[in-house]
Amino acid sequence: MIKVLVADDHAVVRRGLRQILSETPDIVVGGEAENAAELMQKLRAERWDVVVLDLNFGQASGLELITDIGREWPPLPVVILTVYTEAQFGVRALKSGAAGFLTKSSAPERLIEAVRKVSSGGKYVTPEIAEHLAQFVAKEGRAPHELLSNREIQILRMIGSGKTVSEIADDLSLSVKTVSTHRTRILNKMGMRTNAELTTYVVKNQLL
């Protein structure tokens, strides 16, 4: 039996995922988490075979959580299930350590297939992600946002959504100085000068 922990901040989504996965004889949803603290608590309390994680997990960054889980529980596979497209975050999620990546528009059968595959040590890559991976490897250069760390990507997206440095600091429980430092690094890495340029880039590249 494959024991799955579902991590999503929307109760309706968690209920739907539980229903989909519980209809199979070899998969059981052993628990749910609605925030990062609860996720970590349940990971430490029990043994799990697979984590199904929303990339936009409340105030936490799914990309950061993938890294944290990989550091503390290296063998535990994480399947990302998100509203974002493969082109936006698929490659980055896999580079961060995810074992699989699916959009929430995927057929239920794909989620079941992904859980089964990663639980046996494999990787689940859709044809769309395989294409983007090939393009990523083939590119001589990278898109400017590919130079950013996962935390910097998170802050870039928040700037692009119109949040101020103070608001971002409050949301992420960071100091204003720390967020300002990240903002400066983002601007330098991307060769930009203003928040307006960053916002335009975020919107144009559909990173929200």
Relevant terms:
10 helices, two-stranded antiparallel sheet, alpha/beta, Rossmann fold, 208 residues
Structural features, described:
By secondary structure, the chain is α/β, with parallel strands linked by helices. The protein folds into two domains: 2-138, Response regulator (Rossmann fold, 3-Layer(aba) Sandwich); 144-204, Arc Repressor Mutant, subunit A (Orthogonal Bundle), CATH 1.10.10.10. The chain is 54% helix and 15% strand. The protein has helices spanning 11-22, 36-45, 62-72, 86-96, 108-119, 127-138, 150-160, 165-172, 176-190, 195-204, and strands at 2-7, 27-33, 50-54, 56-57, 60-61, 78-82, 100-103. Strands 2-1-3-6-7 form a five-stranded parallel beta sheet, sandwiched between helices. The protein has a two-stranded antiparallel sheet with strand order 4-5. The longest helix is centred in the last third of the chain and has 15 residues, at 176-190. The chain is globular, with a radius of gyration of 17 Å. The model has no long low-confidence stretch (mean pLDDT 86).
List the helices and strands and how they pair.
Blueprint: E1 2-7, H1 11-22, E2 27-33, H2 36-45, E3 50-54, E4 56-57, E5 60-61, H3 62-72, E6 78-82, H4 86-96, E7 100-103, H5 108-119, H6 127-138, H7 150-160, H8 165-172, H9 176-190, H10 195-204
Parallel strand pairs: 1-2, 1-3, 3-6, 6-7
Antiparallel strand pairs: 4-5
Helix pairs in contact: 4-6, 7-9, 7-10, 8-9
